Amino acid sequence: MSNRLLPRLTPALLLRAYAMGVFPMAESAEATELSWYDPPVRALIPLDERFHVPHRLARTIRQKPFHVTIDTAFEATIRACAAPAEGRETTWINEEIIRLYCALHRMGNAHSIEVWDSGELVGGLYGVSLGRAFFGESMFSRKTDASKIALVHLVNSLRECEYTLLDTQFQTPHLARFGTFEIARSAYHLLLGAAVGKLAQPLPATETISQPYPGNP
Fold first, then answer.
1. Packing angle between helix 11-19 and helix 95-107, nearest 10 degrees?
2. CATH, domain 11-196, list 1.10.1740.10, 3.40.50.2300, 3.30.70.3340, 3.40.630.70
3. Comparing C-alpha atoms, which of 192, 202, 205 is closest to residue 166?
4. pLDDT classification of 1: cutoffs 50, 70, 90
């Protein structure tokens, strides 16, 4: 379901929309308008023991091939998510999306996980936080496993900070490997209401993530 939005959507209105289970997308990176979406089926990444780290990825993580940070390069991360890549020649992230989510980041309501290799940004993700809910928006990878490692770090950080809901909007084969599951919109709205009504601990901005990794060894 979608409705056309005004091009100058405000960050405050955007947060109200998220609290109601609605989020914006553009039809393409070149589009000048946005649309509201409230899908009939929602995909969630579990924050409990159902979250699954594939064995090969767990081995890679233990080798610590990358440097991982949080909130050190938000705009660079969202722009990397918006950039064309092999098999994904266009995205739904336009300049209006970038403007809005950078504003949310300055307000403390949007966060990024960055993955670095020798000082180069090679992967990451970003999303919106509201209460104990985190809404994953997009991720990118320029080196093998970089975005997957960002996701594992995100889940670990959300667990540490007592989040209860990680919304990834739509199911994909990539996310299904981690235990992502789908629920009906009505059930999602119940979980959302409970999550946004509670406070979470703040994510550790600008710090290198060094906690133990979640998931099966």
1. 80
2. 3.40.630.70
3. 192
4. very low
